[in-house]
Amino acid sequence: MTRPLIAVPARFSATTSALRYAAEVNARALIEAVWRAGGEPATVHPADPAVTDVTGRLARFDGVLLPGGGDLAPHRYGAADTHDSVYDVDDLQDAFDLEVARRTLGLGLPLLAVCRGLQVVNVALGGTLEQDMGGPEREHRHVVHPVAVERGTLLERATGAQKVEASCYHHQRVERLGSGLAVAARAADGTVEALELPSTEGWFTAVQWHPEDTAHEDPAQQALFDALVGAARDGR
């Protein structure tokens, strides 16, 4: 059986010792999770959407995975100032990812968005972000914590659970929801941990955590990739 082709926008990296130069990369754990699910992951070059046809590029794929990465530039969601903690901002990356989010949803392609990917979708649909979540009591980096999943969501259907253990690495979170988005999961402190778009024609779930971190040992996390690839195979 032919594996559904899953587009994974690359992340720019300033240094990669084995390659000797700056590189475009994706996390191995993320790619392996797509492969285990039966998909064919394909890294996509983040070309300037002002001069390239993003819709045309995406049309050849069966699904899209928007991965984690650095922070979006705060001006992308209307912020006048930039918090000192904002890091690894890249204007080309931002422009490409935002256009990929808009076009993927518009095409109805199956879409799984992870960490930064969730934030990209929220901003693409007019939402805003809290630039830094603050002190240790709201720390969501280097931690695995429980997340409560809303009933009746695609997330619940995919994981088969109303609570999952989420591997988190983020210092920002959703502030104002983008147009049409609905919260699909929250952490105990109220942080939005998953989003869905009930009005979209295609399969779409976004999670603020990194399911690839534990997908090799946690069936609920691997199930997110299984659901993406399954929807891509079914043409939904």
Could you explain the architecture of this structure?
The chain is of the alpha/beta class. The chain has one domain: Rossmann fold (3-Layer(aba) Sandwich). It contains 6 helices and 13 strands. The protein has helices at 28-36, 54-58, 91-107, 116-124, 154-159, 219-234, and strands at 5-9, 11-13, 23-25, 40-44, 63-66, 111-114, 128-130, 140-149, 163-170, 173-176, 182-187, 192-196, 204-207. It has a 9-stranded mixed beta sheet with strand order 4-1-5-6-13-12-11-8-9, with helices on both faces. Strand 5 (63-66), helix 3 (91-107) and strand 6 (111-114) form a beta-alpha-beta unit. The longest helix is centred in the middle third of the chain and has 17 residues, at 91-107. The protein is globular, with a radius of gyration of 16 Å. It starts with a strand and ends with a helix. The mean pLDDT is 95.
CATH topology description:
Rossmann fold
Distance between the termini: 18 Å
Spell the H/E element sequence.
EEEHEHEHEHEEHEEEEEH
Taking pLDDT < 50 over at least 5 consecutive residues as the criterion, the unreliable ranges are: none
Class by alpha and beta content: alpha/beta
Q: In order across it, which strands form the biggest sheet?
A: 4-1-5-6-13-12-11-8-9
Report the oligomer. Answer: single chain
Shape: globular
CATH superfamily: Class I glutamine amidotransferase (GATase) domain
* Main beta sheet: 9 strands, mixed
Determine the fraction of residues in helical runs and give it as a percent range.
25-40%
Number of domains: 1
Number of strands: 13
Question: Whole-number radius of gyration?
Answer: 16 Å
* Beta-strand residue percentage: 25-35%
The CATH first-level class comes to Alpha Beta
The average pLDDT score comes to: 95
Helical element count? 6
Could you say what the CATH architecture is? 3-Layer(aba) Sandwich
